[in-house]
Amino acid sequence: MEAAAAHRVVLVGAGFGGLYAAQALKRAPIQLTVIDRRNFHLFQPLLYQVATGGLSPGEIASPVRHVLSRQRNARVWLAEVKDIDVENRRLRLDDGDASYDTLILATGSHYNYFGHDDWAALAPGLKSIEDATQIRRRILLAFESAEREHDPEQRRAWLTFAIAGGGPTGVELAGALGEIANDTLRHDFRSINPAEAAILLLEGGDRILPAFPPDLSAEAARALMKLGVRCRTSAMVVGLDSAGVTVRTGDHVERIAARTVLWAAGVQASGLGKILSDRTGAPTDRGGRLIVQPDLTVPGHPEIFVIGDLANFSHQTGQPLPGLAPVAMAEGRYVARAIQARLRGKTVSPFHYFDKGALATIGRNKAVAAFGRLHISGFFAWIVWLFVHLMYLVEFDNRLLVLVEWMYNYFTRNRGARLITGGR
Amino acid sequence: MEAAAAHRVVLVGAGFGGLYAAQALKRAPIQLTVIDRRNFHLFQPLLYQVATGGLSPGEIASPVRHVLSRQRNARVWLAEVKDIDVENRRLRLDDGDASYDTLILATGSHYNYFGHDDWAALAPGLKSIEDATQIRRRILLAFESAEREHDPEQRRAWLTFAIAGGGPTGVELAGALGEIANDTLRHDFRSINPAEAAILLLEGGDRILPAFPPDLSAEAARALMKLGVRCRTSAMVVGLDSAGVTVRTGDHVERIAARTVLWAAGVQASGLGKILSDRTGAPTDRGGRLIVQPDLTVPGHPEIFVIGDLANFSHQTGQPLPGLAPVAMAEGRYVARAIQARLRGKTVSPFHYFDKGALATIGRNKAVAAFGRLHISGFFAWIVWLFVHLMYLVEFDNRLLVLVEWMYNYFTRNRGARLITGGR
Predict the structure, then answer these.
(1) Candidates B149, B151, B190, partner chain A, best to mutate (most A CBs within 10 A)
(2) In sequence order, which residues have a C-beta less than 8 Å from that of residue A366 and are 6 or more positions away?
(3) Which of A70, A330, B24, B122 has the smallest number of CB atoms closer than 10 Å to its CB?
């Protein structure tokens, strides 16, 4: 086998960081193995659209195998990494193992319930396709239950939706829920008026979208209010059960009866981060992210790169770079360049991120966007949001489908993918 | 409440029969309650496309509540019927009850494993969205497992797909599988050649598509062979486990190692048929279908109509009408007409079905079609198939999306919705 002589790069995780690294290694004289426990790359920024019935799962996911099918130096394995033998440079998989000369870890993050792991079942987060269809089921079932409920207090609890976390995901979920209640379901019920739904966005900090400039946070709160969403800032979720949430604002503790609680409040690095830290002694931060060197490697292991949400890169501003797709993509491309330089006996300068700005959408025709000192909001920002998101969808057919679906949704205020699947 | 005085029609099941009955009752002076345990109408004829990654679930399903949102005399309940109190004209639901003056039962059928209920977990049938995504998962995982399998015999078993039942669903599944192996996955693997997959269509009768004229059966078998599908007729499945199937052809018994077995061989009426038979003494046939009167009612109960796959109507030809969507739709419209006539004190003549013909598609550009004595096959039949199926999709946005998706699939031979979801 001639390939056995080639430099073996193993890449774990086919999210934005991993996939961009793989594609940037297209012409490298290596043997690349891409390992993911799912068979598809997921376009996470649009996952909230699946959760709210605007898009179907297939429209925001692309089979990894297909994306890389023409890349002859790459093979794709559907497997889960269980352990890392850094001494012998070998990964232990759920069904075998994989040896590497260079390892790239890009396994991302999942939601963090501040130590209350039992809350995960009560208030689903939004990281996977299954999360999204579960949230979709809960939202739709809440309206169905309200329609058949005779007790007014119970009906109110079914029509109350609380979202914990006022970052972009929380804002986008809240905006979409506002639209569903006010427009999409307007004519669908006989006993209830969906527009009477109460949608609460609970943020622990003093404003929503804390990573954005303050003027855009205020703009987003105004746009959400028009969609019937109430933003509660400085509001910490301190209790959660199947009947509602307990919220503390300063010294004031309040109980809110809400049958549907969604979680968008803070993430935790994937478990592989801890395993790598245990095996190499590499430090992690509070969120479990590996604190990487200026070249995105782990201390003492120049053959191990960590990128995306799994990495804490603080060499540029003293603060870790945010967990955003553009950061992961830039890191992926940097690692590909670094590997190729090394194979030619060269070195590369430390990683540097050029800020691409931040975008969040609110409902069907408003968004906020910050590009350095340029802040825009409203319809124009939404057009920018639309364009950016369509361009980064990995496959052309997905782009076309999503565009058709969005055009239809935009003009009819309908949401076609409102299916309750997977049991009740 | 003024509606309390109106004639109460309760309709159970929002498949083709139920939905067409509901819509045909649009202007009737009644109070209509549509009960379904799912919140969507499913376009069953295209379910095999979801199972083979060509379409997403949302594209072939429409929320019942939305379809009927403008129909002011109709309300929709998401509930399951547990029992029927024919004496007091009341349904017992999983969470309440519903009284009727007239009842329409249209709950359809599910797959029948000839008494081997344990086979259901081994060889999934294709009736629900969950079935379709499960079959999709199994097909895709079989190729993934073959890619990583070193033992040639095991690899062969992973690449062998057996489909039990040579009716339209079996033929359509086999054709789509042939395309997946020969076209869609062509460049995606490194260790296996997907085109080496063995696809077997097992039919107990002496030809596939037994409900079609013999010349079209032969035509379909030829078209399947070109896609690499081998048709085995007079082949009864007599054993089934996770490693393969046992098939009897006459006196010859053969074991076929196949890790993926799909079931498309014979249906059984929904459980509500037996409940109604127990409560009214109405006779059922071997498949559990209720043998209905010439006006589609149950003997002794002119207020109970049974339509679609749950009904056995043999008054026209001596043979029961086939379990096809056009039959269910015609029965639904007839029942709506009968109810409105009765309310005006009139009677209607017995139900009569005008044969709409039969259609089955084989792969991406061939089909067979029988309209009375007119038999067509090949590309032209496929265009007819395409047109008929697009026209009957319930919602306009679904039609548009499906058309875009099909056009893309047709020209690129790709299948975008190849997601493995729901665990492994």
Answers:
(1) B190
(2) A175, A223, A377, A378, A379, A381, A382
(3) A70
> Residue A141 corresponds to which tokens in the numbers above?
């079932």
A398 contacts chain B (CB < 8 A): yes
Domains within chain B, CATH numbers bracketed: 2-37+79-111+268-343 (3.50.50.60), 119-265+358-412 (3.50.50.100)
Q: Which of B149, B172, B331, B405 is catalytic?
A: B172
Rounded Cα gap, residues B78 and B66, in angstroms:
13
Partners of A11 in the β-ladder: A34, A104
ipTM of model over 0.90? no
Is residue B172 flagged as an active site residue?
A: yes
Per-residue pLDDT of chain A (424 residues; tens, 9 = 90+): 444 579 999 999 999 999 999 999 999 999 999 999 999 999 998 999 999 988 888 888 889 998 999 999 999 999 999 999 999 999 999 989 999 999 999 999 999 888 898 999 999 999 999 999 999 999 999 999 999 999 999 999 999 999 999 999 999 999 999 999 988 898 899 999 999 999 999 999 999 999 899 999 999 999 999 999 999 999 999 999 999 999 999 999 999 999 999 999 988 999 999 999 999 999 999 999 999 999 999 999 999 999 999 999 999 999 999 998 999 999 999 999 999 999 999 989 999 999 888 899 998 889 999 998 899 999 999 989 888 888 887 666 667 777 777 777 777 767 777 888 875 4
Spatial distance between the Cα atoms of A106 and A103, rounded to a whole number of angstroms? 10
* B94–chain A Cβ distance below 8 A for any pair: no
Query: Which residues have a Cβ under 8 Å from the Cβ of A297 and sit 6 or more positions away?
Result: A303, A304, A305, A306
End-to-end CA separation in angstroms for chain A: 52
pTM, to two decimals = 0.90
Q: Which one, of B106, B178, B67, B177, lies nearest residue B323 by Cα? A: B106
CB neighbourhood size of B390 (10 A): 15
- How many whole angstroms separate alpha carbon B63 and alpha carbon B47? 16
